[in-house]
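dude i think i finally got it to work??
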Amino acid sequence: MRKGFGKLGLICFALLICLAGTGVGYAHWSDTLTIGGTVTTGTWDKGGTIGFWKNWDRHNTYTEEKIEGWLQSIDANSTWLGPTTVEDMVVWLTWGDENPANNMTNKFRAQYLATRLNAESGRLHLNFTHDVTTKDPGNYLNLTNPSSATLSEIVAAIETKFLTHQPPEHPLTKDQFEIMKDICDALNKPEI
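look at this
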């Protein structure tokens, strides 16, 4: 009797090894690979700072006519604001630059104008909710739910403060203007 595989046995053994290697390779090739991550779809707030709106003509996002239409809408619906031209808008926003010489009323009005422009342009959405508790911990705006207030509720609350500001015997304080400015600034970036 012969000992060993012989040529045919050696070829069969080599084919068996190759077939086993192919099986192992296929098993690794067809393994399931799981990749984790977050995909955000839909609509979100983009915001737009004072600088964005003051330099509107540098980024060619909106036409002057479009912005003037928004300014007219804001003028018709706001007791705080009144510019109806792009030139007036730039002046208001310049007054609100973070300059120590400018008073808090001008700083607030500039931030509020940017907030209202963001809402008119769709860069901020009126029905999205915002947590303003870090900017208004004492709930000066008297929001029903300051941890989940919509932009439209925030705007309405700011507009009601104009009525308390108008009588000379009840002017708003620097701190009250600063609260409203900080809320609008955080909305414009958007941070809240």
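Residues 116 and 176 are 19 Å apart (CA to CA).
im so relieved honestly
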